[in-house]
């Protein structure tokens, strides 16, 4: 048995167990280019336990097997996690969005993965199940093990779903990317923000950008600056300069220079925060 | 990978094939089923030339492991025209519109482009210009500048709505 | 669909004629039934693969093939020691099918294998052991020209593949007398035609030594010449059969000669057909992009904006082998001088070998690169003189009746009207303050005659079949630009018959007349004229045979054969009559169109083309000053391509050509890291998607050219020429700073803006 489409979680776990670490989990397969695949694969994209989008009383659960297209089309995600909705709408191409899953986007661990950036900004937690039936929760950002390397061992754990806090009163989120082409392009920088305002003051802020480190990166200094502040020109100017200076980015011949990427980090951090604030105020 | 049997619906017919499941669906279609209408432009999902429908959705067949189509429904360019022998009836309205609106130049992107248009019109029977552009944004075309393709898809949408409302309409 | 008999082949108002207008294979393409090079399979076919150099420059010390030879499924392993060391080339002879002593770029062909399947062929490549001694390499023309630089080809000292110095008028005096001199430097990277079908071929050599190559080419007969020469085969033993072509854009004029030669050699060695195909990565890394260019230009003007002189220093980057790069360099350095009246010219152009991917050509032949530089400089001058960019162009543009500075005789030219119309379409007189606007003009030879002075024209045959249908034979090639539809319409118009009665044979060199092929905008202009003459000849022959058969004069009118008394004869009956009388001949009309001789002197002064097409484009862009990001909102594309005989296909050429121009200007360009191509996927070499191509307003201003056969002039190439200039000027207008390096990217605009702000 070398390529199996698991019809449920139990079956997927059984195969992983029996393969003795040789079998690996696969979902949308869009990032694999079908080169040098492991000899045994368990396709979990049809496993019902990792599908579906549910709105609970105080949580939003998004299956790891949900595709970008499904997430982009979901009205629940649009209203409760707008940044994720925006990120999913712009990944790759319609074809890739139809196959690629949110779980795959995180496990593939590309440093500029759009959905992952949004998930980190939204404070999403991942729920993982091991082969012995025990579950664990981890922040998405903690699933990264290095550049293009996940810390999740796909032969021993299955990423089940993402848990998010739904949008609260006075809260808004947004996603932006800066790419050299309108479709089929990797971004030079992408950014997401989740911001809560109360009586026109920023009470909570999570600002995330990529690519900078292996994982989507929170701009902690910028967030500090935003906390308690009243949105205004002055603040936005400071957000831009703080964001630009607080983390190091790399340049590359194919994308852009370090200097320009650094500038874009500032601009996008500001723009995405502004957008999130506008939405937060509308939701107040 | 070891070969295994893969059963699926291909252009509305049940088929089974003994194949390496890590082979791409594109290679499976071209090399095993001789369906040469699905073309290969890059092999890594960058051009959309190999677009087919998987359960009605446009996908890059070069990125799909053959094992993944087990039990599913695959539709290629060869599957969208009817089997009738009369030329006018044989072609799908999208194919018809592509020819009439000048949307076919070298033709290499055409099958994939038509499949993306097909998926769009199934989901959204009267799309706007912008929605058409979005739906074909994963299909590169080097000849046309996309304008006449956009015009063809909009025209096909009109014809298909008309045909739905007036079943005898040609 | 029948065409309007009154109008003959004029399809202008004939929207219902779409089927035939677009040629015979359009339905097959829409159905997914058209077969391209990658689809071909012959019985017993082997798969060939090529071992390529990992070094930019190295000596080959030894190649050990024993291990590869012994692998199961491997049928042939070829190295340079197995084949004759006969150099070949298109302009200069600098290539061998396989490198024998030295490799000159990363990707240079070292060995070729043929095996029963692709996997075995790949395994054979892995089993080949090559010992290299790396040599120092040069990657930039400047470094290659430096004293003491490593010599890439012994027979080209100084690494100069080609060079030229040219002077017209008295530029020194003009610069002295000028009120204003502006200058700037521009750089343009290599670009790939990026046809969507990677090049593929199947070569099949039989035991009597006949070689058939199945591959789609723009100029199959010229390639046939080169292959016969390189393999030392009699020309008549080489046949090229073309499948459908998945795009060409100049890149398939010669296609990939290495691939054809190596598959042929492998087939000769094995006696079996051999298929070879480039991967997309190979297309970028070893396929032939257009030359990169550095231009330093200086322009002299009077204070009223009159152009007095232009001086250019141009260095083009040839890469490791030359192909058509000298010709592209020549067009790049010269053609643009004829867009405007510039009486004094001095040009120094130099094509330099480097240890990078060999180059060739692309649609518009470098003319678009020159447009970027020259049109940018004109706007710089206009700004200095306080003149309107439109007005300065109207005041200087070439007009009908002109003989340009290089001796081009302009017999028809609507450039002035094109400029006015492009401006009107973009709203020049009512420009939005938040946007930037740019305008630019271009000329392109239509039916260029310089490729072969002695073989300037084209020929065609029209055969009346026994069933009354007509078969046309032409060697011209259609890859979607509508040539075949045009030919059918032209012949149908002459004979006044339904286009559905026509069949076309163009893709088999065994049966089609020798042709120069799809280059230099000569398909419809020259090839179409030959078809027209062949159809006219056939008409005459039909009338003669019918008269003989009837024993009285018979005339062909409105597609029907009528004798004096009004009785009507069937075409098929006449065909059969002639066939029987001659025991097997068919009525065959022949058409040969030979354009007037070209006259140019040793400095290349003279009228080098049958006629010339013109275009003016205007662009509207919006720039986000904070990031440099820009949006192209609209492009107005106005053309003088003579008479437009197929508006649907003509519009298709404009939209597609402008889109490629947008790619050339804002997205595309090779990136290298020490000679290695970095932009080697369609994700990293970005051509525009459907969301990147702006709204294009397209308009034709029809002229009647006395020389242009049928009154038509070329369109496919000139359409790309003015795009870079229009976009560069629009961006400069919007951003207040000028980007002088293509492609124009957000980062470059941002840098220019930041630099400008620092200076202030």
Key traits:
heterotrimer; A: 284 residues; alpha+beta; Enolase-like, domain 1; five-stranded antiparallel beta sheet; four-stranded antiparallel beta sheet; 10 helices; 25% strand; globular; C: 760 residues; Aldehyde Oxidoreductase, domain 4; Aldehyde Oxidoreductase, domain 3; five-stranded mixed beta sheet; 19 helices; 28% helix
CATH H-level homologous superfamily name of the largest domain in chain C:
Aldehyde oxidase/xanthine dehydrogenase, molybdopterin binding domain
Beginning-to-end CA distance, first to last residue of chain B: 48 Å
Q: Which CATH first-tier class of the largest domain in chain B would you pick?
A: Mainly Alpha
Low-confidence stretches of chain B: none
Number of domains of chain B: 2
Please indicate the count of domains of chain C: 3
- Which structural class matches the secondary elements of chain B? alpha+beta
State Rg of chain C: 27 Å
Largest sheet of chain B: 5 strands, mixed
In terms of DSSP E residues, the strand content of chain C is 25-35%
The termini of chain C sit apart by 66 Å
Q: What are the segments of chain C in which pLDDT stays under 50 over at least 5 consecutive residues?
A: 1-20
Q: What CATH first level of the largest domain in chain C would be assigned?
A: Alpha Beta
CATH architecture of the largest domain in chain B: Orthogonal Bundle
List the secondary-structure elements of chain B in sequence, H or E.
EEHEEEHHHHH
Structure description:
The complex is a heterotrimer of chains A (284), B (170) and C (760). Chain A is of the alpha+beta class. Helix content of chain A is 34%, strand content 25%. Chain A has a domain of 112 residues: CO dehydrogenase flavoprotein, C-terminal domain (Enolase-like, domain 1), CATH 3.30.390.50. The N and C termini of chain A lie far apart (55 Å). Chain B is an alpha+beta fold. Chain B has 2 domains: 75 residues, Beta-grasp domain (Ubiquitin-like (UB roll)); 79 residues, [2Fe-2S]-binding domain (DNA polymerase, domain 1, Orthogonal Bundle). In chain B, strands 2-1-5-3-4 form a 5-stranded mixed sheet, sandwiched between helices. The mean pLDDT of chain B is 94. With 760 residues, chain C is an alpha+beta fold. Chain C folds into 3 domains: 157 residues, Aldehyde Oxidoreductase, domain 4, CATH 3.30.365; 176 residues, Alpha-Beta Complex (Aldehyde Oxidoreductase, domain 3), CATH 3.90.1170.50; 318 residues, Aldehyde Oxidoreductase, domain 4 (2-Layer Sandwich). Helices cover 28% and strands 25% of the residues of chain C. In chain C, the strands form 8 sheets. Chain C has a 7-stranded mixed sheet, with helices on both faces. Chain C has a 5-stranded mixed sheet with strand order 7-15-14-13-8, with helices on both faces. A 4-stranded mixed sheet of chain C has the order 16-26-27-30, with helices on both faces. In chain C, a hairpin with a 5-residue loop joins strand 13 and strand 14. Chain C is globular, with a radius of gyration of 27 Å. At the B-C interface, helix 3, helix 4, helix 5 and helix 6 of B face helix 2 and helix 17 of C.
């Amino acid at each position: 048995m070398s390529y199996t489409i698991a019809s449920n979680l139990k079956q997927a776990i059984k195969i992983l167990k029996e393969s003795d670490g040789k079998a690996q989990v696969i979902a949308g397969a869009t990032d694999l280019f079908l080169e040098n695949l492991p000899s045994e694969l368990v396709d979990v994209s049809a496993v019902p336990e990792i599908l579906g989008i549910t709105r609970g009383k105080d949580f939003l659960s998004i299956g790891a097997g949900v595709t970008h297209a499904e997430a982009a089309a979901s009205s629940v995600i649009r209203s409760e996690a707008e940044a994720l909705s925006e990120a999913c709408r712009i990944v790759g191409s319609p074809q890739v969005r139809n196959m690629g899953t949110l779980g795959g986007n995180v496990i593939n661990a590309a440093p500029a993965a759009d959905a992952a950036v949004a998930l980190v900004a939204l404070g999403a937690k991942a729920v993982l199940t091991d082969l012995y039936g025990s579950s664990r929760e981890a922040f998405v950002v903690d699933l990264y093990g290095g550049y293009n390397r996940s810390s999740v061992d796909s032969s021993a754990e299955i990423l089940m779903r993402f848990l998010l806090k739904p949008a609260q009163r006075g809260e808004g989120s947004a996603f932006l990317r800066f790419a050299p082409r309108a479709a089929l392009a990797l971004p030079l920088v992408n950014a997401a923000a989740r911001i809560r305002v109360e009586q026109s003051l920023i009470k909570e802020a999570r600002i995330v950008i990529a690519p900078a480190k292996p994982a989507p990166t929170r701009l902690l200094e910028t967030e500090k600056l935003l906390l308690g502040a009243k949105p205004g020109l002055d603040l936005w100017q400071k957000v831009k300069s703080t964001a630009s200076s607080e983390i190091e980015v790399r340049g590359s011949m194919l994308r852009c220079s370090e200097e320009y990427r650094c500038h874009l980090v500032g601009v996008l951090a500001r723009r995405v925060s502004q957008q999130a604030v506008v939405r937060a105020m509308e939701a107040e | 990978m070891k070969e295994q049997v893969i059963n699926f619906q291909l252009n509305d017919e049940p088929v089974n094939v003994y194949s390496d499941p890590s082979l791409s669906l594109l290679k499976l279609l071209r090399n095993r089923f001789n369906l040469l209408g699905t073309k290969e432009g890059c092999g890594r999902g960058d051009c959309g030339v190999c677009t087919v429908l998987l359960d009605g959705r446009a996908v890059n067949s070069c990125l799909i492991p053959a094992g993944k189509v087990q039990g599913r429904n695959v539709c290629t360019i060869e599957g969208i025209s009817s089997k009738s022998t009369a030329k006018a009836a044989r072609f799908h309205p999208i194919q018809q519109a592509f020819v009439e609106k000048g949307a076919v130049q070298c033709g290499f992107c055409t099958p994939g482009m038509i499949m993306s248009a097909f998926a769009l019109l199934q989901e959204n029977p009267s799309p706007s210009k912008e929605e058409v552009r979005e739906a074909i944004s994963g299909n590169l075309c080097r000849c046309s500048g996309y304008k006449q393709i956009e015009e063809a898809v909009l025209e096909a949408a009109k014809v298909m709505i008309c045909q739905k409302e007036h079943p005898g309409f040609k | 669909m029948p065409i309007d008999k009154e109008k003959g082949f004029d399809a202008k108002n004939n929207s219902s004629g779409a089927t035939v207008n677009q040629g015979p294979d359009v339905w097959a393409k829409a159905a997914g039934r058209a077969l391209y090079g990658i689809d071909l399979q012959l019985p017993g076919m082997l798969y060939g693969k090529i071992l390529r150099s990992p070094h930019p420059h190295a000596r080959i010390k030894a190649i050990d093939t024993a291990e590869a030879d012994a692998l199961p499924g491997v049928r042939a392993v070829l190295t340079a020691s197995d084949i004759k060391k006969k150099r070949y080339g298109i302009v200069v002879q600098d290539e061998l099918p396989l490198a024998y002593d030295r490799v000159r770029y990363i990707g240079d062909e070292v060995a070729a294998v043929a095996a029963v399947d692709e996997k075995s062929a790949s395994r054979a490549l892995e089993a080949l052991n090559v010992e290299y001694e790396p040599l120092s390499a040069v990657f930039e023309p400047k470094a290659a020209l430096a004293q003491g630089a490593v010599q890439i080809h012994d027979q080209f000292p100084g690494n100069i593949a080609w060079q030229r110095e040219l002077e017209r008028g008295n530029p020194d005096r003009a610069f002295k007398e000028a009120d204003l001199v502006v200058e700037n430097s521009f750089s343009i990277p290599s670009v790939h035609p990026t046809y969507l079908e990677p090049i593929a071929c199947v070569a099949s050599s039989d035991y009597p030594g006949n070689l058939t190559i199945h591959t789609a080419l723009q100029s199959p007969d010229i390639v046939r010449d080169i292959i016969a020469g390189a393999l030392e085969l009699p020309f008549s033993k080489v046949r090229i059969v073309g499948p459908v072509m998945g795009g060409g854009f100049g890149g398939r004029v010669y296609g990939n000669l290495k691939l054809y030669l190596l598959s042929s050699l492998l087939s000769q060695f094995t006696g079996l057909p051999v298929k070879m195909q480039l991967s997309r990565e190979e297309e970028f890394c070893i396929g032939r992009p257009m030359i990169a260019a550095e231009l330093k230009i200086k322009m002299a003007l009077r204070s009223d904006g009159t152009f007095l002189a232009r001086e250019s220093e141009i260095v083009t980057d040839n890469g490791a082998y030359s192909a058509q790069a000298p010709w592209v360099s020549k067009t790049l350095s010269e053609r643009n001088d004829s867009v405007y009246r510039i009486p004094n010219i001095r040009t120094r152009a130099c094509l330099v070998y480097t240890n990078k991917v060999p180059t060739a050509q692309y649609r518009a032949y470098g003319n678009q690169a020159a447009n970027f530089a020259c049109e940018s400089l004109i706007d710089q001058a206009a700004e200095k003189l306080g003149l309107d960019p439109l007005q300065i162009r109207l005041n200087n543009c070439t007009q009908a009746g002109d003989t340009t500075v290089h001796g081009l005789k302009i017999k028809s030219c609507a450039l002035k009207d094109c400029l006015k119309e492009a401006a009107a379409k973009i709203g020049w007189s009512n420009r939005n303050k938040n946007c930037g606007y740019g305008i630019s003009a271009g000329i392109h030879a239509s039916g260029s005659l310089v490729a072969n002075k002695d073989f300037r024209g084209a020929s065609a045959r029209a055969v009346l079949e026994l069933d009354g249908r007509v078969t046309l034979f032409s060697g011209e090639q259609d890859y979607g630009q509508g040539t075949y539809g045009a030919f059918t319409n032209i012949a149908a118009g002459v004979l006044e018959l339904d286009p559905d009665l026509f069949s076309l044979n163009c893709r088999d060199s065994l049966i089609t007349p020798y042709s120069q092929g799809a280059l230099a905008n000569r398909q419809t202009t020259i090839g179409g004229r030959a078809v027209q003459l062949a159809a006219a000849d056939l008409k005459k022959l039909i009338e003669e045979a019918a008269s003989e058969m009837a024993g009285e004069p018979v005339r062909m009118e409105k597609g029907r054969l009528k004798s004096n008394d009004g009785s009507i004869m069937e075409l098929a009956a006449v065909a059969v009559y002639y066939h029987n009388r001659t025991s097997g001949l068919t009525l065959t009309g022949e058409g040969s169109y030979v354009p007037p001789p070209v006259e140019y002197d040793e400095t290349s002064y003279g009228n080098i083309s049958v006629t010339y097409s013109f275009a003016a484009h205007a662009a509207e862009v919006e720039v986000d000053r904070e990031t440099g990001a820009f949006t192209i909102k609209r492009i107005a594309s106005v053309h003088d391509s003579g008479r437009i005989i197929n508006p649907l296909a003509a519009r298709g050429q404009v939209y597609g050509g402008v889109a490629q121009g947008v790619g050339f200007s804002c997205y595309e360009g090779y990136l290298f890291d020490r000679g290695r191509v970095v932009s080697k996927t369609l994700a990293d070499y970005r051509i525009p998607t459907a969301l990147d191509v702006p709204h294009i307003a397209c308009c034709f201003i029809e002229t009647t050219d006395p020389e242009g056969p049928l009154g038509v002039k070329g369109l496919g190439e000139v359409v790309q020429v003015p795009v870079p200039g229009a976009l560069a000027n629009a961006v400069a207008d919007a951003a207040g700073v000028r980007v002088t390096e293509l492609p124009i990217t957000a980062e470059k605009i941002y840098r220019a803006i930041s630099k400008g702000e620092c200076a202030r």
